[in-house]
Structures are given as C-alpha cells and as structure tokens.
Write a structure and sequence with these properties.
The chain is of the alpha+beta class. The protein folds into 2 domains: about 140 residues; about 130 residues, no CATH class. Helix content is about 40%, strand content about 20%. It contains 7 helices and 11 strands. Strand 1 and strand 2 form a beta hairpin. The longest helix is centred in the N-terminal third of the chain and has 24 residues. It starts with 5 loop residues before the first helix and ends with a strand.
C-alpha cells in the first residue's frame, strides 16, 4: 500500500508546475510575472491533492485535467499576446518531464512516480526538489538550444549606439528578411526595442510607451528645438500591418562587433523584437 502525504504531494506538484510555467515563459520571451506563476502553480498543487481526496476521483477525468490546465494558463499567462504559444510550450515541457519520469521508473529508479496523472515521491522532499530543479535546467537548456540564434553562426552581433555623449549596448540579430532602409541614404535601418534604447535620451526627450505607439504625436512633442531633424517617421510593412509608422532616431554612431558604421537611422519598436529575449534589435545585412 502506497502512503501519500498531502503536504509533500502539494509542494512537489506546485514546485514542478512553477518550474514548467517559468520555463515556458522564458522560452516564449514573456515577462516573468513570478507572482502570477506562483499562483498558477499553487492551483496545480491543489488540483493534485484534490484528485486523491475521497469522493473527488472524478477530477482525474481528461476533461477535468484539460479545464485545470486551462485555468493554470489563464492565471499564469492571462493577458499575454502569446497565450497559445505559451500553453503549447507548457504542454511540451510537461510531456518531456513526464517522459523522463517514466524512463527513470523503467530503469528501476525509485524517485518520482506518476499516480492519477500527478507526481508523488517517497523520497526526502529536499532530494525531490533538487531533482526537479535539475530537470528544469536540463529541459530549459535543451529547448533553448533548439530555438536559439547563435553568435558563432553570424546571426547575432554586438551593437552599440551613440547619441551625443550617451550610448547603449544591444545584441542585434542580422535578419535577411529585414528590408527596412533609410529613404535618404538607402542604408539598412536598425529596429531596436524602444524601452532598451531609453538610456540614449535625456529624461525630457526619452520616448515613452505611449510615444512609441503614437509616433506621429511623439514627433510633435519631441521633435522640437535642437532635436528638430533628429526624429523621423518611418513607414513600414509587415505581416498583418499593411501601412504602419515607426518613430525613428538618427544616432551619431553605430558600432557592430566593435567596427564603426557611422551615423545611422534606428527605428524604435513599441514591442519586443525577440520571442526568446536573446536579442534586442534587428539589422539587415550591411
């Protein structure tokens, strides 16, 4: 007869759910809202306990599992533009983790086990939590390796922007699909995350989130005095956007991998340019 302790069952599943939710968010390039992740993981832990309570066995039905997973996703990632993607990543990570548990069991391991679709263990809780952390690290590393752009392949390059005495360093992706060019010079335009470029500007000239979403209004507010001519409106087209505008700034200097490229036009994106957070700017082939 297997004895399952409620406190261990809750803590184990909550920790594993938290790590899986966190890993999915990292891979999707989403902000890490750890408080929401903890709440979603706590719901997962309570669901794991509820399945074993007398009279609640019906909760192990596939439809109940699906509803529980959907509730966890909404609590953890609600409001995200990539909710579906994060849900798919979470399910993929969960399947990979569960497959590893089954493999360990087949090899004769006595660590984690699956019962009613939830994790439990007779081992010391410290050993279990350490094992879960190791599994989280391995899974995150594997998935990141599969999707990551690399500097060795030439896809990623270090970039530094100069505006007067101010400068900011970014990691840029050399994107062959980025055909945005400066109408005046024909040179490729860098697209940088607006929030990451804020150190370039004095406080009264730094474009805020509202300015980046309303570039025409930002031009009226920011492009005055000595800054006249610095800011530009740059038309662009992309998937889902037939005619759009980006606020752009002409910087005094652009360096790529330590090599100066002279003045350049940098378009400020109101949203992240990377799904996984591995780079903060896009640049076409120079």
């Amino acid at each position: 007869m297997t004895v399952i302790y409620v406190d261990t069952l809750f803590l184990l599943n909550a920790v594993i759910d938290y790590l899986l939710i966190l890993a999915a968010a990292r891979l999707a390039g989403e902000p890490l809202r750890r408080g929401r992740f903890a709440l979603g993981a706590a719901l997962g832990g309570m669901y794991a306990v509820a399945i074993f309570l007398p009279g609640l066995g019906f909760l192990s039905h596939p439809l109940c599992r699906l509803a529980s997973a959907a509730l966890m996703m909404l609590v953890s990632y609600g409001g995200s533009r990539r909710l579906l993607r994060q849900g798919v990543l979470f399910i993929a990570l969960t399947c990979a983790f569960g497959g590893g548990v089954v493999a360990i069991g087949l090899l004769g391991g006595t660590g984690l086990a699956l019962g009613n679709g939830v994790f439990y263990s007779a081992l010391d809780i410290k050993v279990v939590l350490l094992s879960a952390a190791v599994c989280y690290g391995v899974l995150t590393l594997v998935f990141q390796r599969l999707a990551r752009h690399s500097a060795a392949s030439g896809e990623l390059t270090s970039a530094r922007l100069w505006l007067g005495e101010r400068s900011v360093s970014l990691t840029a992706l050399v994107d062959t699909g980025n055909t945005l060019t400066d109408p005046a010079t024909g040179r490729p335009v860098m697209v940088a995350e607006g929030e990451r470029a804020r150190p370039l500007f004095p406080r009264d000239r730094a474009p805020g989130p509202a300015d980046l979403r309303d570039p025409a209004g930002a031009m009226t507010r920011l492009g005055t005095g000595e800054w006249r001519g610095r800011f530009r409106l740059l038309p662009y087209r992309s998937v889902g956007v037939d005619r759009g505008l980006l606020l752009a700034i002409r910087v005094d200097g652009l360096e790529l991998n330590g090599k100066g490229r002279g003045p350049a036009l940098v378009a400020l994106s109101p949203t992240p340019v990377s799904d996984g957070g591995g780079y903060q700017a896009l640049i076409g082939p120079m």
